[in-house]
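Render this sequence as a predicted structure.
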Amino acid sequence: MTSGPYEPQPEDRFTFGLWTVGNPGRDPFGVEVREPLDPVDIVHHLADIGAYGVTLHDNDLVPADASASEREVLLKRFRAALDSTGLKVPMTTVNLFTRPIFKEGALTANDPDVRRFALAKALDAIDLGAELGASIFVLWGGREGTEAHAAKPVAEALDRLAEAINAMTTYIAERNYSTRIALEPKPNEPRGDILLPTVGHALAFIESLDSPELVGVNPEFAHETMSGLSFHHGVAQALWAGKLFHIDLNAQRIGRFDQDFRFGSEEVKEAFYLVHLLETSGYSGMRHFDAHPYRTEGPEGVWDFARGCIRTYLILKEKAARFEADSEIKAALAVARVPDLATPTKVGDGSAEALRGYVKTLDESALGRAHYGHEQLDQLVTELLLGVR
C-alpha cells in the first residue's frame, strides 16, 4: 500500500458494501447502466484501494433461490477472496424490502405469515454474518411504514417490531454469537413514513427491548439530513448513549430523495464536524461508506468514487487535527466559553438553597451583555475548510 497523508491505513477501518460499489446505476426512471460486478472482484478492487473490509446484504452474495450446495460454493469463493486479500466482513444486513412479499411491510406486516417469513429470513442472515465473522447485524426497516395511516396502528406495529428484535437477540444468545444489532433510522422512502425515522426515535425504542445491551444504532448521513436534521448531532447523541454500533457515511442535500452521494460531496461543514467527532470521541468502529457512484459513471468511475470517499474522509481528518492545534481557534473557543461547558451546573452541596444563594450574587445584565464570538469562530472554521489556514 502506498503511503502519504491521504492514503488509507488498516487502522482507518474503511468499509464498503457489495451494494455500494456494485450499484449498477438503476434509478426509478432508468434501467441499469453498468454491468453487475462479481463479489469476488469487488473484494479484490477494494483491497487495491486500501479498504479494511466489505459488507453485504444476505442476497448480495447468496441469491434467495440458491440451494444449500450453491450457497456453499458461493461462500467458499468469497472466503477465498477474503483470505487472499486480508479484507474483513465486520457487518452484514438483511434485505427485507425488495421482494413483492414485503410490499406492505416485513417485520411489521399486518399479515402474520409475512412477518414470520421476514423473521426467518433475518435469522438466516444473522447465521450468514456469524459464518463470515461479522460482529454487527444492521437492520433497516425500509418497508416498515405506511402511506395510508389508517392501515397500520403505530403502537401495534412497534409491538411487532420489538417482538421480532427480541426473537433475534434470543437467537443470538442461544447460539453464543458475538453479534450486536444496529437499527438504521430513516424518515421516508420507500414508504411515505417509516417507523423509527430518526436516531432519537431508535434510541427511545431500544430501551423497551428485552436485551437493550445487544441493540444500538447505525445512523446514516443521508437519512438524518433528508429531514433537515444535523447528522453529527444525532451521532453525538448515539455516542453519548453508548449506542453507536456502526455508521453509514455518504452525502445528501436537505429535502431531497435519498441521494447516497460520495462522502463529502455535499454538506462539507457537516461532514467536517462529523469526522472531528468520530476522531476525537474514541469511536473505534468502522467508517462505512453506504453511497453509490453517479449514474453517469462507467466501470472506472466506480473506483474513482470509492477512492474519493476515502480521500475526502482523510482530508477532513487532517483538517480536524489542524482545528485542534490552531491557536486562534483555541482562543475563539475560549471566548465562546466552550471549555466551561464541562463545568457542572450544581453549586456547593447541590441543594436548591445553595443554587438560589449563588444566583443572587449574579449580575444578570452583565451576563446578558456577554460576547461569545460565534461569528469569528465559525469564520475560522470556514477558512480552515477553504484551505487558507
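Summary. The mean pLDDT is 97. Residues 299-325 form the longest helix (27 residues).
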